[in-house]
Amino acid sequence: MTLPTTGRAWHLTARPDGWPTPADFALREEPVAAPEAGQILVRNLVLSVDPYMRGRMNDVKSYVPPFQLDRPMDGGAVGVVVASEAEGFAVGDHVLHFLGWREYATLDAAHAQKVSPDLAPLSTYLGVMGMPGLTAYAGLLEVASFQEGDTVFVSGAAGAVGSQVGQIARIKGAARVVGSAGSAEKVELLTKEYGFDAAFNYKERPVGEQLREAAPEGVDVYFDNVGGDHLEAAIDAMRPQGRITLCGAIAQYNDAEPAPGPRNLVQVIGKRLRITGMLVSDHDELMPRFAEETAGWIASGQLKYHETATEGIETAVDAFLGMLRGRNTGKMIVRLAD
C-alpha cells in the first residue's frame, strides 16, 4: 500500500471572543510523516468534538494546554493503523488516540489504545464506552459518593455525559432522577427512553421553579454540566449533606465577561454541602471496572445511548459549533469513513 504524504487538518486561526465562528478555523493540507521506530500511522475514522475544547481556544493557563494558532488541533479519535513500526500494533488494528481534527495521525504507539469493533461500534469508544462515559461513572459514583436511595439532579442531561449519569443513577438504585435539557424532544427522550423520573426544559421557565416541582423533597446529588442558574437552583434544592460534582459549565464557556457566581453560596455552610470539581484524567484507575459494567449494561439494554453524527472532515467545525449550541442528542461525533 502506498502511504499518504499529505492529509487535511483543522487549524485554529484566531482566538474566539465569545462564541466561536467558522472564521476562527481553517481546514488545511498538512504533510503526513511516515512512522519511525515505536510509532504508528493512523487513518482516522471517527473524530470527537467536546465542550472542553472551547476552553482550549483561549490563551489561558488551564489543566490542559491551549490550542496553538495555525497548528493542527487535537482531540479524541478512533482510526485504523495503516503503517506500523511499533511492536504489538499491526496494519488493520483499530486504535483510540488523541490526535483528532485531522485525516491522518502519526504518533507514538504508547499514546494509542487498541479497541475492537467486534465488542462495540468504534464511535462508542469516544462516547458511552470512552471519556464521556468514564466522566459520568466517576463523577457520580466516586466524586459525588452516590448512595442507593439518593435523589439525583443532572443538568445537560441529554448530552453524552449527562444522559449516562442519570441512567447509572437509576441502575444503581436512585430514589429519583431528574434532568434538565433544552428542548421538548430531549425532555421526552429523558423520561421515555433513559428512564428519568422527571425532566424539564430549562428554556421554558426559571430553573429553580421547575426543579422544585420535579424534586419537591429536595436533591442529594447534583451533577453539574452547565453552571450558572442551574448551579444556583441546585444549591437551593440540596438537602443537608448533599454532594455536587462540578463537571462543566457550558452555559459560561462563551461569555466574553466573567459570569456572576451563584448568589446563594451561604447555603453551602448551613447545609454542609460538598462541592467538588472533577477531571476525568484523575480516575483512570476506574477504567477496567467502568468498561466491564458499562458493556454489561449496554448488552442487557439497561443503558441506552444516542449519537449525533456529521459526515466528512469538512463538517467538524459545524459539528463543534452545533454541540456548543445544544444541537446534539447524546455524543456529537464526526465520521470520516466506515
Walk me through the structure.
This protein has 338 residues and is an alpha/beta fold. It has 2 domains: 6-126 and 306-335, Medium-chain alcohol dehydrogenases, catalytic domain (Quinone Oxidoreductase, Chain A, domain 1, Alpha-Beta Complex), CATH 3.90.180; 131-281, Rossmann fold, CATH 3.40.50.720. The chain has helices at 52-55, 131-143, 160-171, 184-192, 207-214, 229-237, 266-270, 287-300, 316-324, and strands at 6-12, 25-31, 39-48, 77-84, 94-97, 104-108, 113-115, 151-154, 176-181, 198-201, 219-224, 238-246, 274-277, 307-311, 331-335. The longest helix has 14 residues, at 287-300. The radius of gyration is 20 Å and the shape is globular. It starts with 5 loop residues before the first strand and ends with a strand.
Flag low-confidence runs.
none
User: How many angstroms does the end-to-end distance come to?
Assistant: 19 Å
Sketch the topology as an H/E string, one letter per element: EEEHEEEEHEHEHEHEHEHEHEHE
Structural class: alpha/beta
- CATH class type of the largest domain: Alpha Beta
Q: The biggest beta sheet, please?
A: 7 strands, mixed
CATH topology (fold) name of the largest domain: Quinone Oxidoreductase, Chain A, domain 1
Give the key terms.
alpha/beta, 15 strands, 9 helices, 25% helix, 2 domains, 26% strand, 6-stranded parallel sheet, 7-stranded mixed sheet
Q: What is the strand and helix layout of this fold?
A:
Elements: E1 6-12, E2 25-31, E3 39-48, H1 52-55, E4 77-84, E5 94-97, E6 104-108, E7 113-115, H2 131-143, E8 151-154, H3 160-171, E9 176-181, H4 184-192, E10 198-201, H5 207-214, E11 219-224, H6 229-237, E12 238-246, H7 266-270, E13 274-277, H8 287-300, E14 307-311, H9 316-324, E15 331-335
